Amino acid sequence: MEQESFEDTEVSEVLNKNFVCIKVDKEERPDIDSIYMNVCQALTGSGGWPLTILMTPDQKPFFAGTYFPKEPRHGSVGIVDLLLLIKKKWANHKTELIQSGNKIVKAINHPSASDECDSAENLLAQSIKMFKKSFDKSYGGFGTAPKFPSPHNLLFLLLHYERSNDQDVLHMAEKTLLQMYKGGIFDHIGFGFSRYSTDKYWLAPHFEKMLYDNALLVIAYVTAFRMTRNEIYKSIAIKTMEFILREFTDAEGGFYCAQDADSEGVEGKYYVFTPDEIINLLGTEDGEFFNQYFDITTKGNFEGKNIPNLIKNNKMDARIERLLPAVYQYRKGRTNLHKDDKILTSWNSLMIVAFAKAYKTLDNIQYLAAAEKANAFIQNHLCDGTTVFTSFRDGKRSNDGFLDDYAFYVFAQLELYEATYDKRYLDRAVDLNNKIVSDFYDDENGGFYLYGRGGEQLILRPKETYDGAIPSGNSVMSYNLLKLAQLTKNADAESMARKQLDFMTTAATSYPAGYGFFMIALQMSLYHPKEIVCVLKNKEDLMEVKRKFPHDATVIILEQETKEYPLKNNQVTFYICQDNQCLPPTNEL
Predict the structure, then answer these.
(1) Which residues contact 113 (CB under 8 A, 6 or more apart)?
(2) Angle between helices 345-362 and 403-420 (to 10 degrees)
(3) What is the chain's mean pLDDT, rounded?
C-alpha cells in the first residue's frame, strides 16, 4: 500500500487535499493499533495489517478495512474511489457518519461480558485437546498455512509434558521444533528465524526477521534441550543467539527490532540461490555437495530460485560447517537488507529472558553477559526510576511505556534473578511490579489495561489478554505475580496473583488454545514447585551451590542466617519445602 498508494502522486493529492493523514507505527503505539484493530474486527469480521481507518477529528471511527489497491481489483474497491466516496458523504451526510462513529465507540466500550469461568484443570485439559486436534502430523505446527512459530505455545507443551509425561504432547512440540529448523523459515546460511511460513512445509517464509520471534524460539529450543538432551536443539539455539549477537546487537548491548524481507524491492532476493552460483563460489565438488545438502536445484523451490532447506535431508554433516562462512560472506556482498534499528523495551526484555535461560541451561558466560548488558541498556536509556519508556533510537527515547514494556521487563528481572540469584534483580522486579499495579490495574473489573493512568486517553482503554505472535501483557503479568508471590512470600502479591488468575481464566474459557503463555502460569499455580531457602555462610558460597538447584525450584538466597533460618553445623544450609511440607534443614542439597 505504501508503494502503490501513499507514494503515488494521484492518491497523495486526494489524501492530502481532503484528509489529515496519520501513519501509525504499531510498535511505537500498540494502544492505537489495539483499539482500531478491534474496530476493524467488529465491523468487518476480520483484521490484519495494513490497517486502514477513517475517523472523525475526535478519533471516532466510521470506516475500517485492511488492504485497498489503488484501482478496483478482485472485487475490492480502489483507494481513490473509496476516498472520493467518503469525501462526498462527509460533505452531504456528515451527521450520519458522526452518529455512526458514536455508535461504534459505544459498542466497543461496552462489550458483552462473559461470566463463564472454567476450572483451571479443565482449561488446561481443553487447551491440550485443541492443540492435539489442530496438530499437523506430517509437517508439525498447528492448523494450515500460513504457519506461525508461536513459540510460547510450544513452550507450554514442553512444560506440560514435564508435568504430565504425556508423550503425545512432547511429540507435537519436538516435531514442530525440528520441522521449523529443517524448513526455509530458518536461515541455514546466516542463522535466525523468519517471521512465518507461507506454506504447510515451513519452506517458504515471509522473510522478515523479528527480534521477538527469535527470542521466544531460543527459549523453546533451550527448554527442549534441557528436557531431552538432544544436541540438535542446543545447536539451533546457539546458532540463533549467534545471529542475534552478530546482526541485531547495538554496541551498547541493546537489540534491534527487525530485518526487512525485501532487497532491492524484491522479497527474499537476499536469501535465494541458483545451483550455478554455489558451484562458481565453492568449486564443483564442494558446490555440488552443498547444493545436494540444501536441496538447491535447477528447478528451484521459490520463484525459480532456491531457499536452502533440510526438509528432504535427515543427515547432518560436519563438512557443511566449513563451507557456510564463504556462502554467508558471498550473500552479504551480493545485496543487503534494511534493518529496523529501534530498540524496544518489551522485545529486548524477551531477548534478555532468552539469554538468561540459555546461560542457566548451557552454562556459557557469554549469554549472561549479553543479558546483563542489554538490561543495563534499558536501565540507562529506557528508564527513569520505575518509569519505563517504549523505544530508543538515535539518542532519543519515545513515550511512556505500555503494559507489555513493564510486564516483559519484570519478566526479564525475574529470569536474571533466577540465573544469578543476585537480589538486586528481584528487588527491581518488586519495585516495577508495584508501579504496574498502581498505574495499570483495573480495581473494579480485574486485569491490566494496555496503557497507564498517565497515558494519552483514547476512545477506549483496552485490555489485551489473547496470546498472539507474542504473549499478552496480562498473560505475562499472571506469570510474574505468581513468581513474585513464590519468591517474596508477600501476602499482597499472593492476593493479586489469585485475582489475576481468576480474571485470565474467565478470558481464556472461550478459546484456551489461544492463551498458551497464560496456560504456563495456570499450570504453575496448580503444581507447586519445591521451595528452597539457601542460607549462605559467605557470599562466595553462592557460586558453588547455585549449579545444584533444580531448574524448576523457587530459590530464595539469604546472605546470612536469621532466627527463622539458622545455619546448621556452621555451613551452607538448605531448607526445602513443597506444598507446605518441609524437610529438616540440611547441608547437602
Answers:
(1) none
(2) 20
(3) 93
